[in-house]
Specification:
The structure is a homodimer. By secondary structure, the first copy, chain A, is an alpha+beta fold. Chain A is 31% helix and 26% strand. The N and C termini of chain A lie far apart (60 Å). Chains A and B meet through β6 and β7 of A and β2, β6 and β7 of B. β6 of chain A pairs antiparallel with β6 of chain B, so a sheet runs across the interface. Chain A binds a DNA duplex through α2 and α4.
DNA sequence: GTACGTGCAAACGTTTTGCAGCGGG
DNA sequence: CCCGCTGCAAAACGTTTGCACGTAC
């Protein structure tokens, strides 16, 4: 009688497409992680925080799988790794943008690429192409 | 007859002052490390490279002491830690400047702070002061 | 059915720490 | 002489890997 059986899984649909689009099999664990990562506001999280979040969601995933999945998402260009202050963060916003880092709390937030203007870039070494420019504004 | 006995150690004098100025006892090991780090051109080195350099200089220092000394120098503001591309570098140039990173070779070089101009910094969070702005120009 | 993903535990490389002995002031 | 530094080895840390089992297609 119902047009779809899994009405309650509707919210996972876009995560499923996201994973499939990246060539990743949409397994339960990956769906749970991708759903948490990409729904809601952009996040800057550590692997440990992802693992903790998965447990809280009653979707227990092993830490190894968390790392595997995060690495796959990075390869697919859906996630970015940011190393600041001796900590490695995974940034759910893979687009070009910069970061504001609070040295006291270790908290990270985004700065839109469009709001920042950089002038006076040096001549690049011969045969080298610009990959990207990362800016970290540190506050205390 | 000689006004100074240790004429051959003259080249370590400035390193000695550097350490003393930072409140660090100028021990043999620290002198050897500081001398290698701060004489010659600015360097971007890993802890392992510092350790290897010490061995080559016939001034063997344990790796633990290398880390201890580097951390002390960082606290003293004489050294800066830079994490790029999954590697941690110690930068002997503690002054304000930026970095150019070659993603292929993993090599790091300096960009003088004066040559770069950044405009459009966001308003800082309430009660926060700007610590510094780090720019990494990545090339491939 | 098969290829790929998962969980666990063990391996890994890097950095820190605990402690007995040494050396600078 | 004393406190701080050193060396060594062991621990801690975050991340990766190997393998038996499970699951999506």
């Amino acid at each position: 009688m119902y047009s779809k059986q899994k009405k309650s899984n509707r919210k996972y649909d876009s995560s499923k497409e996201l994973l499939q689009g990246a060539g990743l099999r949409p397994t339960q664990q990956r769906l749970a992680l991708a759903n948490w990562l990409f729904k809601g506001c952009p996040k800057h999280v550590t692997a440990e925080q992802v693992h903790a979040a998965a447990r809280k969601m009653r979707a227990p995933v092993s830490l190894a799988t968390v790392y595997n999945t995060l690495n796959h998402l990075i390869e697919a260009g859906l996630l970015r790794q940011v190393a600041i202050g001796g900590q490695v963060y995974f940034d759910t916003n893979a687009g070009g943008h910069h970061h504001l880092f609070d040295e006291k709390s270790g908290r990270l937030s985004d700065i839109p690429a469009t709001s920042l203007r950089i002038a006076g870039l040096p001549r690049l070494p011969h045969g080298k192409a610009l990959s990207r420019v990362d800016v970290v504004v540190r506050v205390r």
